[in-house]
Amino acid sequence: MKTTQHLFTSPRLGFRTWQDSDLDVFSAMNSDPETMKYFEKPLSKDESKAMMERMNSMFKDKGYCYFAVELLETGELLGMIGMGWKTFEAEFTPCVDIGWRIRKEFWNRGYSTEGASRCLDFAKELGIQKVLSLASSDNKASIRVMQKIGMEYWLDFDHPDLKKSKHLNPCSLYQIIL
Predict the structure, then answer these.
(1) Residue 2 lies inside a defined structural domain of this protein
(2) Nearest to 146 by CA among 98, 106, 90, 81
């Protein structure tokens, strides 16, 4: 088991910033069509690297990001869970968003719910008072996670950045007051 400096942990998960050594696993997850079904498109390795760099930059700037998440037992990269800063044009932006993307071999084990719940605690520690989450209305698995972590349905909307991906709209927006 490798030793990693975690920013915080949950019972089974460790949360940290992104490392160059994450790229191959992260890129494989992001290039998988099934994992990326509710996103515009699978990502290339360069797009995954750029995303990791954006997340580390966001962490330096805001104190949070979509964190690299490892299984504490093995040190294996599970995917990402955390918060982002959304600024697309909508009645509820700018806002703090919570989200997750997990490698499909780890689906249906409660990791997204456990990790998202711990990230809400972290958000509260940072003094964040309100967190939103959005997903394609067809993404029942992500919406179920939102409900399990105590978020409440707010509204459905057409995401302005997804106009070319009509199959992803409408999106459902959930919120929680911390």
Answers:
(1) no
(2) 98
> How high is the pLDDT of residue 17?
98
* pLDDT number for residue 3: 53
For the record, the structure tokens of 165 come out as 């991906």
The full DSSP string for 22-53 is GHHHHHHHHT-TTTTTTSSSPPPHHHHHHHHH
CATH of the domain at 167: 3.40.630.30
- The answer for residues whose C-beta is within 8 angstroms of residue 45's C-beta and 6 or more apart is 23, 27, 31
Looking at the domain assignment, is residue 170 inside a domain?
A: yes
CA angle 36, 95, 59 (to 5 degrees): 70
Nearest to 40 by CA among 176, 147, 171: 171
Taking alpha carbons only, the member of 76, 71, 26, 66 closest to residue 46 is 26
CA–CA gap between residue 97 and residue 88 (Å, rounded): 12
Q: 46 — phi, psi (to 5°)?
A: -65, -40
